Amino acid sequence: MRDCAGPFVFLAPLGSVRRVSNPFPQPPSQEIIATLRRGHAAQTSGDLATAESCYRAVLARDPNMFDALHMLGLVHAMREQYAEAEMLMGQALAVNPRSAVAHSNRGNVLSELRRLPEALAEYDAAIALRPEYPDAHSNRGLVLQDLGRLEEALVSYDQALALNPNHVDALYNRANALRELKRLEEALASYDAALRLKPDYVEAWCNRGNALIAIGAFDEALASYARALAVRPDYPAALNNRGNHLIEERRYEAASADFERLVQAKPDYPYARGLLLHTRMHCCDWRDFDGLRADIDARLAQGEQACSPFVYQALGTDPALVQLCSQIYAQDRDPPAAEPVWRGKRYGHRKIRVGYLSGEFRAQATSYLMAGVYDAHNREQFEIFAFDNGVDDKSPMRARLEKAFGGITDITRLTDAAAARLIASQEIDILVNLNGYFGHGRNGVFALRAAPVQVNYLGFPATMGTPSLDYLIADRRVIPEGERAFFDEKIVYLPECYQANDVRRGIGAAVTRTQCGLPIDAVVFCSFNNSYKLTPATFDIWMRILRGVEGSVLWMLESNATMAANIRREAEARGVSASRIVFAPSIPMEDHLARQSLADLSLDTLPYNAHTTSSDALWAGLPVLTCTGTTFPGRVAASLLENVGLPELVTASAQDYESLAIRLGRDRAALGVLKAKLAENRATTPLFNTARFTRHIEAAYRTMWQRSTSGAAPEGFSVPAISG
Fold first, then answer.
1. How far apart are CA 307 and CA 305, in angstroms?
2. Residue 13 pLDDT
3. Residues 53-70: what's their mean pLDDT?
4. Average pLDDT of the chain?
5. If you write DSSP's letter for every residue of 61-121 in order, what string do you get?
6. Is the pTM of this model over 0.85?
7. Residue 117, Cβ density class (10 Å: 0-12 exposed, 13-18 middle, ≥19 buried)
8. Phi, psi of 678, rounded to the nearest 5 degrees
9. For residue 390, is pLDDT > 90?
């Protein structure tokens, strides 16, 4: 979600005309006064060129005319030429240092220049000159809010409102501070008070929607965004925020329409181009796919905020651009804190305290993979803690996790600073980021350095692009030795597959092909990947595979109705009957695992492989065919297959991938051999040996902890395989 920033109040009254004192003071001429007033009228109407001309005409006559300097500074501020504005306002204050309005306005300009301590000093000067000045109090609150001093900001807003209870901008800014403090109900009350005074306040409608999202009032939030857009149909923040929430609701076609409007209205809006392509990919709407992807790549190479890192996983093929994408996003959203919460204290516990921070402690992919690790941790050597930024879905998985951790700490209503302080109070030695840029993470907590060692693991298969994360846990298949430079973290290599798996996952009752709408005797290829991972290039290959294997079908997860309709159309356009595409509905996980054994071969995607989805297939007894990609997310399936003893299903090129799929599809006996081999290997190879994996990741934690407690800087290392 993008906030609509609180407005600074620029005041530019044209009162008495001031100029520098001289031994023979002369009152300004009527001509100068008339010129200033013409400039002010033009400025008020938005004619900044005429206003500037008037003020410069006055300054040509008298370079030290306070009002002309001040007002010309405001013209530059309105043009977002803040350096010029600050210089002119400084000159104006040299003429008349007792102008509270000029001090406040210069504070606004300094705020825009991110010179926040100087801005705060200007507001303090304005208030010292004029304590009853509500705008200066409100503007001061904005700077305190930017500095993270939210409680002090509230005091300033309340002072403004004590002077003027109907100060609509102070009400709005106060609501924003309350929302940042997670005092959401109070924030909503303040937004509503502002909207009663100013019903067309689009920023308030937009941020009110954000607060409603945070408390789970989703329908009301969408209505709030709609009110903002009714006032200003192409208001960028409302289009962005509504589009992002529609993604959460899996209403991808509607989200795509919002991002298309957003890109048209504001072509350089941060991350909008990536979100437009992402929502289209969810629908398998591949209009101008290659052009949009090339445009995103080019913009990222120029350092633009063209795409968020999570979205880029399904697009990026150049590891240098993948890293740059994360770095751009990290600097924008979660720059490292100037004053970290953890400041070097060594805890010295007998057991290593490992904290897992996630928004997915529920029936979700991360927990399906990690639950067995939580169960298997050596309690004699490790204490484990869960910090939850998600929801309790009351599922059996949630109950299992609660038992494994002995309780889960909810941080959803804590600010990043409060959550970091809470984690530090638990004296966590190693804090593991299980989300990264995926899902409901809290990267701001890591930016505040909540623990001595901070680790990027599992949820986001790329660098976080920030020094806040010390280590990334991987294996040599997903990150070859020669590509460590593309990661800001130090790489820790596990000896086998980096991805955890849970040996206790249940598989439902057997079903038949007829029950699932599949042909009884045909070869069934399948892909249960998320639709946003499917590119037109991969689909081209799949259709050639179907044409090469007579009577075969492709079984796909129906992500949404629009996706299914588009896939049928795209198949027909490639000479394949839409009847050869069979769609599977979403069903409970155990039943989903059970039905996968009905397929003959799972076809992987590029540039973003199936990760948990590949583990699902292999656990269910379904072989997976993959092609090795050029980035971490494109190599995960290769790591899984090699660690379950099926390296023959890892291909090195798209041509090899296609040829092998066709060859296997024409040889039912070979497919049977692969299934039998997988069934035998599942119990004997490393991939599904949860206890073995846990000992390896614990060895990694132990080395990280030892380096930290000895005062050594983070450094990459390899974990040796345990014997046996």
1. 6
2. 36
3. 94
4. 95
5. H-TTBHHHHHHHHHHHHHTT-HHHHHHHHHHHHHH-TT-HHHHHHHHHHHHHTT-HHHHHH
6. yes
7. exposed
8. -65, -40
9. yes
